[in-house]
Amino acid sequence: MNSYNLTHLKQLESEAIFIMREVAAQFEKPVLLFSGGKDSIVMVRLAQKAFWPAKFPFPLMHIDTGHNFEETIAFRDYLVEQTGARFIVRNVQDSINQGRAVEEKGLNPSRNGLQTITLLDAIEEFKFDAAFGGARRDEEKARAKERFFSHRDEFGQWDPKNQRPELWNLFNGRKQPGEHFRVFPLSNWTEMDVWQYIAQEKLEIPSIYFTHRRTVVNRNGTLLGKCDHITLLNGEKYEEMQVRFRTVGDMTCTGAVLSDAATLQEIIDEVASARVTERGTRADDKRSEAAMEDRKKQGYF
Amino acid sequence: MTEQAYTEMDLLRFTTAGSVDDGKSTLIGRLLYDSKSIFEDQLEAIERTSEQRGDGYVNLALLTDGLRAEREQGITIDVAYRYFATPRRKFIIADTPGHIQYTRNMVTGASTANLTIILVDARHGVVEQTCRHAFIASLLQIKHLVVCVNKMDLMDYKQEVFEKIREDFRKFSSKLSVPDVHYIPISALNGDNVVDKSENMPWYQGSTLLYTLENVHVGSDFNHVDSRFPVQWVIRPQSDQYHDFRGYAGKVEGGVFKPGDEVIALPSGFSTRIQSIETMDGPVAEAFPPMSVVMTLADNIDISRGDMIVKPNNQPQVGQDIEVMICWLNDKKLVPNGKYAIRHTTKEARCVVKDVRYKVNINTLHRIEDDKTIGLNDIGRILIRTTQPLLYDSYSRNRMTGSIILIDEFTNETVAAGMII
Ligand SMILES: Nc1nc2c(ncn2[C@@H]2O[C@H](COP(=O)(O)OP(=O)(O)O)[C@@H](O)[C@H]2O)c(=O)[nH]1
């Protein structure tokens, strides 16, 4: 035995840092997609580590659905200010106003699909050639085959059958003009790894991840927080509950879980014994078994 | 889990290989299920699907079936990654399909793995594909092999069946270079010897599969002898606080580096000392694989991406004419005398294929010298000449400084994986 061992978190961190440096070296204009959620908070920390003591050489960008939790947006702005990075926001609402996107009809109008349009427009506007995302392969079945360097054609589309093989740590970022890559440094992380890393690094996170009292409605088993974008149906009613969120997506489709977890260690314990995947709290994935795959093909994260 | 526990867990990457229907998906499903890595909503989804398909039982194999095309055809067609953890270790599974035509997937999955599980159907024994998979594992320098003899339930859990397969495999694999081989009789369907010890096979005294995965020693799989630091990115903050800071960012791919060590930068050949090894969390006393760090040097010498920092008394080979064992990954065949882009460590160059030495029959391991066309899933030895010298080691010495990929310059696709001889 020798003492040259790294913990799993150190190995994952090193891998992610390696990927970020590779992107900086192989691409002209990368951007880091940033939502203020826990995965993107980890991404920002990794970017800082990868280029320290210099600043990371790319801007942050948020594709804002307009349906975000206030707490997340406040936290987003706070973190951006701390990093001193250049920050870009593009709004789904603007895409709707310009007639580039059309709001969904129906009960839980989700803006997840529309995000794709705004994102692709922004990538074109700024001529970004690589966009970092915080997605993980453990999140959802269709993501399990995603690459670190995920090639997108000139329409921003993903072709699951025609992905480039990735071997060792040799990443191929070559592309034709107009094409771009999505890059996922957290590919090999699980929800548990992310929480453990947040605890290890003592990272700040938005308050909605911790337990709080909130007015919610139970819609088909998903606890949705009260907000302007949700209309009650016949027989539905708002109730006060002690909850927290496991992800910070759109308010119209991100469900809360009943929880008393008030500290990171309590969250870690809860995740360790959780019986439902974190995306299980997202109504948009339940629409059909292949929902995520379909959205990814169209250019979703 | 206590904080103590997760700050001490390490990582094992493994890949699974087997012919279609040997039970690979069932085995992975079983590992995830018995290690409690499956969530209720995932289980409900596969219960629903199993029912629709009329499987008659909860088909754990469905857990690892990713994409729609595969669900429709009922086969796995690409490498999929799965994760689970026990209090000892986090595991990354590269789930690679067993079709004949998918050598490419197995090579891809194995390139980052410490260990390979090879499944053998107890009814069929060691077949052509078993040999193929073992060969690929050894070609990719996988140090640990676990041969799982599956479906023991269909052979009445008989010891002779297991012993015969073990003997057959041993004979075949003596020709290969895999240092550490384990044999385990299992039933993936019923869970015998996967996570829990089987009551049906009292004659088997060895460990269960999960125990084996948790305890295989992988610390020494990295090369700690030949110091190699390919420079990935030069860090120059140009801020007031770090005005004169010039650091070389990269991942240690071999050996151990310490501040004060005498080093030489290649290809320039200038020598200097390591001044410090930096991270955002503070300087470190030593850097070893696979750490990502930033090195500062005592002298200001010109170093850029693609260069390598090494120790003067242990240098990599430097050359432009390189013998490589390749696996072809693309529908478009290798073009003799064709030109390709090549990536090696953090360097990109171009190369021309000067010669195809031979092709390998991956079932018999014999050399084929009369047919040298190399197409999808073929393995062969070639000679390339690169436009610039590469700083390399043989793959058997160091997987990271001994591997390359070839890229088609027109389509930009990765067309070959190569191991330097
Ligand atoms: N009796 C028995 N059947 C098994 C066992 N493992 C897998 N099977 C069955 O063998 C078939 C193929 O299994 P699957 O996991 O899909 O194979 P794959 O093609 O290697 O992924 C399925 O019908 C499984 O239920 C086992 O240990 N015993």
Task: Give a brief rundown of this model.
With 301 residues, chain A is α/β, with parallel strands linked by helices. Chain A has helices spanning 8-26, 38-51, 70-83, 92-97, 112-126, 191-201, 264-273, 283-286, 291-297, and strands at 30-33, 60-64, 87-91, 130-132, 149-152, 180-183, 212-219, 222-225, 239-245, 256-258.
Low-confidence stretches of chain A: 284-290
Please count the helical segments of chain B: 8
Strand order of the largest sheet of chain B: 2-3-1-4-5-6
Gross geometry of chain A: globular
Rg of Cα set of chain A: 19 Å
- Average pLDDT of chain B works out at 89
Biggest sheet strand order of chain A reads 3-2-1-4-6-5
Name the helicity range of chain A: 25-40%
Whole-number mean pLDDT of chain A: 85
Q: Bound compounds, please?
A: guanosine-5'-diphosphate
Secondary structure category of chain A: alpha/beta
What overall geometry of chain B do the principal axes of the alpha carbons give? globular
Query: What proportion of the residues of chain B is helical, as a percent range?
Result: 10-25%
Largest sheet of chain A: 6 strands, mixed
Report the major sheet of chain B.
6 strands, mixed
What structural class should be given to the helix and strand makeup of chain B? alpha+beta
| SS elements, strand count of chain B | 19
> Low-confidence runs of chain B (pLDDT<50, min 5 residues)?
none
Q: How far apart are the termini of chain A?
A: 42 Å
Query: Could you give the distance between the termini of chain B?
Result: 45 Å
